[in-house]
Specification:
This protein is α+β, with helices and mostly antiparallel strands. It has one helix and three strands.
């Protein structure tokens, strides 16, 4: 779990707008994390992967 935490910290640090999107191209799951005032929010959704080029 430490490597995952480190990866999230690096994404957050390099983000200029304090938000980023993580997508799983296998399942179509998408998560957006962004800063909201003094806390953070995570929104999770799903996209249609049947139209992706292989």
């Amino acid at each position: 779990m430490t490597h995952f935490t480190k990866a999230i910290e690096e994404l957050w640090t390099t983000s200029e707008s304090n938000d980023f999107l993580i997508a799983d191209k296998t399942t179509g799951n998408v998560a957006q994390m962004f800063c909201e005032e003094e806390d953070y929010e995570i929104h999770v959704g799903k996209c249609d992967i049947t139209k992706l080029k292989k």
